[in-house]
Amino acid sequence: MGSQPESDIQAVAAPVSSDELTLLLRITNRLSSAWQLQEILGNLYDDLNTVVPYDRMEYAVLDDSGRVLTTIWVGASYESTCLPVGYAYRRSTPIDRMRFSTAFIDNDLTEYAKGCAPDHPVSLLEAEGMRSSLNCPLVVADETKGCLFFNSREPGSYTEHHLRLIQPIAGHLAAVVEQSRLNEQLRVQNEALRSIEKSRLEFIASISHELRTPLTGVVGFALELRDRLEDFSREEIEQFAALIAAQSSEVSGIVEDLLVITRAESGHLNIYPEKVDVEREVRAVCESFESDRDEQVVVLEIENVEAAADPLRVRQIVRNLVSNAARYGGPQVTVSVSPVGESAVVTVADNGPGIPEKDREAVFQAYGRSHVARPRTGSIGLGLTVSRYLAEAMGGTLTYDYQDGESRFVFRIPVFRDDD
Predict the structure, then answer these.
(1) Which of 21, 24, 134, 344: disulfide with 158, CB 3.0–4.6 Å?
(2) Please, what is the end-to-end C-alpha distance for the chain in angstroms?
(3) Which residues contact residue 83 at a Cβ distance below 8 angstroms, ignoring those fewer than 6 apart?
């Protein structure tokens, strides 16, 4: 895979024959009709061997830096071991860069390999038994996209005539492969757009359900009080008012989550840190929390600790974590607060089945939810996303792990220091 002196290249014996032209036309038609890269290269390997001698054909693509050429396809009459699919050629020297951007012939790889390191591509090819090489770059719009390599076990196998036959095929192959790449890129983009549209529709449906549930209660209780106030005792009226307040608070929480996402994505999320009594904020959230499962218990294990944080955002995070545990976790939820080093740590744990390891980061993405979650009340899927946004905005973290039969969401924020 290096260039030989001009005298070592066999002279051209004859122009391209009519039979060769016919074959080249058939090959280009086959290249154009195939859709998958493996099929395109397989067809080329089968067809071109009638006019060009080779025991091995390789296709490699150039990365965006222009310095690494990676083998993505190999066809051979033997089991190739030294230069397999995935092999990366490092174009670290001007000579290496020249070899991959210029069409050339090496008719004595054994001689050339004498001046190469053992791990050099030429040395590896020679170790596989190859003795001749014909290399042709794949160029699109004056930009090298990759390289097509032909190797033969026989020394002196290639002439400029072979190079003349292969160059137009290489040019056509480069165009076909580039179009295939663009088609795949378009397919991926379209798939991403379809996924975004699906998420948008799911979001609209989910938020409609999420808001409708508490609003139905608010409207229903308010209408009862408006139309039949005299029919209810003072105690019943107070119960209705408490339910209206609780349902309205839930709606307010949903709207606040939506505002956080919008502001965070636009770079306008405001945080107002101050000295926060974490115990007080956590107790306030847990005391106001009403589980939708009678057997579920929120157990508090709290140590006094003060943090440098936004109290409103601390409550929002804890509310989201406890709500998530109640909806998707086990029958018991435990909330603990403790100082750990320079952090105030809030842990919300439940004894549910846990989140599969492959989904543990996905649940922090908008609309993310583990497939093992047991659905109850609908969720717009933003609570954990919002909570991580807020934790990081306050200089903290929010993580998940599963230990000793418990799912644990761990929220850390810096402890308060007098100089804060």
Answers:
(1) 134
(2) 64
(3) 58, 71, 74, 121, 124, 125, 128
Token digits of residue 108: 């004595």
Q: Give the range with max mean pLDDT: 34-38, 153-157, 195-199, 368-372.
A: 153-157
Nearest alpha-carbon partner for 67 in 87, 93, 104: 93
- Cα–Cα distances in Å, from 243 out to 83, 209, 214, 246, 411? 71, 19, 10, 5, 30
Q: Read off the tokens for 213.
A: 């549930």
Amino acid at 113: A
Whether 300 and 283 have beta carbons less than 8 Å apart is answered as yes
Global confidence as pTM: 0.49
Among 86, 103, 79, 413, smallest CA distance to 273 is for 413
Residue where the block lists tokens 């095929």: 169
Average pLDDT estimate for 285-306: 71
Residue 82 neighbours by CB distance under 10 Å: 15
Phi, psi dihedral angles at 228 (to 5 degrees): -135, 35
136's tokens = 């042709």
Residue 253 has pLDDT above 80, yes or no: no
Tens digits of residue pLDDT in 363-410: 887 655 544 444 333 344 578 888 999 999 999 999 999 988 889 999
**CA pair distance 373, 388, nearest whole angstrom:** 19
Does residue 256 contact residue 320 with C-beta atoms inside 8 Å?
no
Following DSSP, what letter does each residue of 276-321 receive, concatenated? EEHHHHHHHHHHH---SSTT-EEEEEE---EEEE-HHHHHHHHHHH
